[in-house]
TrEMBL record:
The keyword Cell division applies. Pfam families: Cyclin. Belongs to the cyclin family. Cyclin U/P subfamily. InterPro entries: Cyclin-like_sf, Cyclin_P/U, Cyclin_PHO80-like. Keywords: Cell cycle, Cell division, Cyclin. GO terms for molecular function: protein kinase binding. This is Cyclin. SUPFAM superfamilies: Cyclin-like. GO terms for biological process: cell division.
Amino acid sequence: MRTMADNGMDFQIETDSLLGLSESGKLTPDSPRVLSILSSVLERSVQKNEKLLKKLKKKDTITIFHGSRAPTMSIGRYIDRILKYTCCGTPSLVVSYIYIERYLQKIDAYLTSLNVHRLLITSIMVAAKFTDAGCYNNSFYAKVGGVSTTEMNRMEIEFLFSLDFRLYVTADVFRAHRLQLEKEGLGENQTDLRAANKTRTKCLPQIAAYTCRAI
């Protein structure tokens, strides 16, 4: 892995073991732990932020990632769809989570049901390009995410410039966020996505149609 190559095999094994991975760094069919933890953390963050905004009677910063209404597909199912077709490594998922935090802090915005889907498909694509040896192009991710290629390109550019192209993630930062995800995921009654993950034994070239119409 590019950003953590100098930390040795022990760190990678530790990370993979925590997140339920095979030695290849990919999600195993019977280990949906990382997906359920990440989706649970994001869902709770969205709920908390929307309650806070409502309580404060405050309007969030509108960005290119905002839609007029929330998509009908849940966060968990959306992440599962992305992983099902792209087979991106789990390091990409953790890094994408870090990127989303950086982006929201930079523009002083909140994660809500109106922007979480677009931020997910964009951050996962950018993270996969930076951490994975092989990666699909923007049009592929656009089809998986239910947006147009033009939108995907615009969101990637906006995301990168907002981050000042700061894509490097140190091992310490990665480890801290990995532990944060583990801590926040403990004790949660998370949805079992085991059945859905059984299809992820290999990348699927035929993408089932989906339109994220709200975004």
